[in-house]
Amino acid sequence: xxxxxxTGTGFWVPSRVVTNDDLAARIDTSDAWITERSGIRxxxxxxxxxxxxxxxxxxxxxxxxxREAIAAAGIAPGDVEQVIYATLNPDVFFPGNGxxxxxxxxxxxxxxxxxxNQCTGFVxxxxxxxxxxxxGLARTVLxxxxxxxxxxxDLTDRGRDVAVLFGDGAGAAVVQAREGNRGILASVLHSQxxxxxxxxxxxxxxxxxxxxxxxxxxxxxxxxxxxxxxxxQHATRRFAEAIAEVLxxxxxxxxxxxxxxxxxxNQRITDAVTARLGVQPERVFSxxxxxxxxxxxxxxxxxxxxxxxxxLASGDLVVTVAFGSGFTWGANLIRW
Length: 336
Prior knowledge:
Layout: E1 2-12, E2 17-19, H1 20-24, H2 31-38, E3 42-44, H3 58-73, E4 82-86, H4 97-105, E5 111-115, H5 121-135, E6 140-147, H6 160-163, E7 169-179, E8 183-191, E9 199-200, H7 214-218, E10 225-226, H8 228-250, E11 259-262, H9 267-277, H10 288-291, H11 298-308, E12 317-324, E13 328-335
């Protein structure tokens, strides 16, 4: 049977480390407050020049991660037939980051598309890559999740609940056609748009002349807004539901899974889901303490780190699962 197998992974994060104490020096918060509520101790942010511009673009971050994944897969960049780039923060309003990445990697005329599903973007991206391969549209797909969050945060007391959570980074996976039982076994994808405004950024917006107004900026509507309590309630429920659903679809149980790789949203969410499923904590990957929430990049970064640390062996079952803005949520079941 033809399946879509992950043959290489990679990630890249900025060298600049921003600790909780660094944030406490700027806004009304503390290391203890952030750690207790999120499990985050530090995050990586891109450095900026005197005019506030980041050292590199989001697509360039993605290219760093992609080159590592391509090398790990043992292929040449020209072997990539399709790029899928998951991000909620493209470098420009249009076009998407996928085409910029295609150019940076020298992929010729490979297909390129963006997925705007925020924290769930990489899960959707793996499902899309699976579809490309099973349908015969491509045999080698590059899936990237990358985010620049640090430039979009309200670093005042008004925005502290959200600003302390997010980091910058990118991760990538090469997905290739393979015969046998190795690869993506099942995926589940869901959304519930009635909650779209409970976790969103209102501006810039296509319906406003000039896309953003002075009033929007003055009121902070270009910064992300989150109804934290509601998001927590839905995330813990949907994470568990998505895992249970994808396991049923694949005909396996939680005990069969070697490693769960959740979106690194909040350690309290991860702990709640782990307890609900009755899974041992050592089978749930977590790096949120070091990187914070990197939205679409969090799963591919975690996956690449798990590979680097030797946490995955051939034949292991892996579950990737995410919940995010939209609301959107989903999971992938993968045989390594």
